[in-house]
Write a structure and sequence with these properties.
Aminopeptidase, 8-stranded mixed β-sheet, binds coenzyme A
Length: about 210
């Protein structure tokens, strides 16, 4: 049955181009994942906070390599875009920012992230999340980027607020964690007219 509404992002439009590398304030770079990042990803998942909030551990470098292969494949299948957040000078891994669950017809995606313990507390994650979101909304035709976190994850809520994601509500008991069910806070940024030459940081309204 034919759809009556044209898709927000035509199929094939994203995969027709390469996944970009995006600079982030604070000497960081968002670049596509490399298989050689596997050892650093395995090490990142030794962190109890990453294990707690992402509900996984990595038992081997081979397992981490498998995740990276899956992240890489999502660009070609137009289902997601996953970046390594690295020190622009040394290429040391500082974190991960991903857009996942692409719904190209509606022009929506979900953002996810973590930073390694030694990179925390410098505003890197909110900066990187804002860069990725601006790219999605203003370069690639997405209309809405959603961000969800457990209501118990206050650091993640701070990232959402600092990256300009407006709180939209709470999904009760939506996630099953190791310690039981968690309420989930939903935030979003929605596309607005392109920001001006000042760079247009996140608007107070949460518009992109
Ligand atoms: C949440 C997370 C991505 C924040 O990244 P970040 O680059 O440190 O972001 P910020 O520097 O803006 O810090 C965000 C908040 O973390 C807390 N924080 C600050 N320094 C910190 C440190 N050294 N260690 C841990 N948390 C710290 C503060 O609450 C801060 O908010 P504030 O700036 O209003 O005080 C990071 O702590 C992390 O990876 N946590 C574990 C995994 C996780 O929670 N992922 C998100 C799942 S939804």
């Amino acid at each position: 049955m034919p759809y009556l509404v044209a898709p927000a992002i035509p199929a094939g439009a994203l995969a027709a181009t390469g996944q970009p590398t995006l600079p982030v304030a604070g000497g960081a770079l968002l670049r596509p994942w490399l298989l050689t990042d596997a050892a650093a990803v395995r090490e990142a998942f030794e962190d109890p906070a990453i294990q707690r909030w992402h509900m996984r551990r990595a038992d081997s470098v081979a397992e981490a390599r498998g995740w990276i292969e899956a992240w890489q494949s999502e660009w070609a299948s137009e289902t997601g875009a996953h970046w390594a957040l690295v020190d622009a000078e040394s290429d040391t891994l500082w974190g991960r920012v991903a857009l996942k669950s692409f719904a190209l017809r509606d022009g929506t995606a979900e953002i996810a992230y973590w930073t390694v313990p030694s990179a925390r507390g410098r505003g890197l994650c909110p900066g990187a999340a804002a860069v990725v979101t601006r790219w999605a909304l203003h370069e690639r035709g997405f209309h809405r980027v959603e961000l969800e976190h457990s209501t118990a994850n206050h650091a993640s809520c701070r990232v959402a607020v600092k990256a300009g994601f407006v709180a939209e509500g709470i999904r009760r008991g939506a996630w099953l964690h190791a310690d039981g069910r968690h309420d989930v806070h939903l935030h979003a940024r929605v596309r607005s007219p392109r920001p001006g030459p000042s760079g247009g940081g996140p608007a107070a309204t949460g518009a992109g």
